[in-house]
Amino acid sequence: MLYERWLEVVRERRNDFALRDLASGQSWTFGELKAASEGASTGSAHLVHPQGQSADFVLKVLEGWRAGKLVCPLEPGQNPPVVPAPPTRCVHLKTTSATTGRPRMVAFTAPQLAADAENIVATMGLRPDWPNLGAISIAHSYGFSNLVLPLLLHGIPLILVPSSFPEAIRRAAERKSALTLPAVPALWRAWHEAGVLPPNLRLAISAGAPLPLTLETSIFNSCGLKIHNFYGSTECGGIAYDAAQTPRAEAACVGTPMRNVELAVNDDGCLQVFSRAVAETYWPEPDVAVGHGRFQTSDLAELKDGRVYLRGRLSDLINVAGRKVAPDIIERALLAHGSVGECVVFGVPSHDADRAEVIVACIAAGPPTTAESLKQFLLLKLPAWQVPREWWFVESLEADKRGKTSRTEWRRRFLKATMRFS
C-alpha cells in the first residue's frame, strides 16, 4: 500500500523537486528519487533500519517498502533492537521516547502510518510549494510523520539540514521563497535568541515538549511569526494542533483535535485517542492501552469548547498529605515570574509520613532571585499546600535531543545531590 502510493506521487510529480540533502549538496526530483531507491538492495534480513539524517535514510525507507520488509528507523549510533517479527500485517516499528518509563517498540500497519500522514497534511495545511526544512530527527516519530511520510505519500518536498545550529538554519532557508519548519521548543528558543528565524517561514510548528507561552508570545511580538503547537504521541501520531494565527491565551491549551481524530477523557481524567492512526500494538509485549483504534494516554486532560487542555500526567501527580497536585500547575505559575527562565517541579519522599511527598522546584533563573521571593510570589497564585518546600537552583535545565525535560531525571539528580531522601 505504501509503495503503491509512492508510485502515484511519482507519476503525478515526476519532474518536480523532491529532496535536497544539504550535507552532500545533492538534490533529487521525485523521478530521480525513485530511480535511486531502485538501484540498491536491502539484503536478506526481514528488518530494514534507516539511520541518520541524510538522503540515505529516505532511500532505505523506499527500499524497505519496495521489498515488503519491516522498517525500523534508528537514531544515529542506536543499535538495532533484538525483537521477534511482529504480526505480518505490521510494516513499521517505532521506539517510544520513554518519558513514562523504559522505551518499548510500537508496531504499525501501512494504513495506520498513512492515516497519520493524511491527518497531519490535512490539519496543518502542508503544501508542495512550502517545502519542509528537516532540522529534527527523521528517525523519531515526530520527524518521520511530519517530514518523511508527507514527502513520500503526499509529495511535500524535504530539505534535510545537517545541523540545527542557528547559522545552519539561516543558510538552509536562503534558497526557497517559502518554507515549513517543524521543530521543538528548545530549538525555537535558540534560533529566536540568535536572531536567525527565517523571514520566509510560512508555517512554524513546535512539538516534542510543551511550548512555553512566553516563548510563543515573544517570537510573535518580535517578528510576527506564529508558532503552532502540535501535540502527539508515538503510539497514535497527531492528537491536537493549534491552528490559530495568534498566540494562545493559556499554556495548557494544545489546540483542537486533529482531523479524523476523536478524543475523550476517562474516569481517571486521562485522555483517550480514537483514530485510524493508532498503532496496532506494543511489541513484543502487547498492552491494552494501544490497539483497535484506541490509545489510552496517561495525560490528564480537559476538553473544553472544542479545545484540548493538558493538566499534567497521572504518573507525575504529587501526593501531599492525601491531596494530589499536577506539577505543571506549579510550573506555569512559576514561569509567570520574570526571573524564572525554566523550571521543573516534582515530588520526593517526605520524612514526615503524614505528608507522603514534598514538592521540589528546580529553577533555572535569569536575574537574581531567592527561594523566599518565589515562595511569596506563588502564595498569591496557589494554595499554600501547593507551594514547593524545597528549592534547587541550577544554571540550566538542558533538554534531551527530542526537546523534552525529564522530571524523572531531575528528580534523580536532586536526590543524588542532596542525599537527603532514600
Structure commentary:
The protein is an alpha/beta fold. The chain folds into 2 domains: 2-313, Rossmann fold (3-Layer(aba) Sandwich); 317-418, GMP Synthetase, Chain A, domain 3. It has helices at 2-13, 30-38, 55-67, 110-124, 141-154, 166-172, 185-194, 213-223, 327-335, 371-379, 407-418; strands spanning 17-21, 26-29, 47-48, 70-71, 90-95, 105-109, 132-134, 158-160, 179-183, 201-206, 227-233, 237-241, 253-257, 261-265, 270-275, 281-283, 290-291, 294-304, 307-313, 318-320, 323-325, 340-349, 357-365, 390-393. Strand 11 and strand 12 form a beta hairpin. The longest helix is centred in the first third of the chain and has 15 residues, at 110-124. The radius of gyration is 22 Å and the shape is globular.
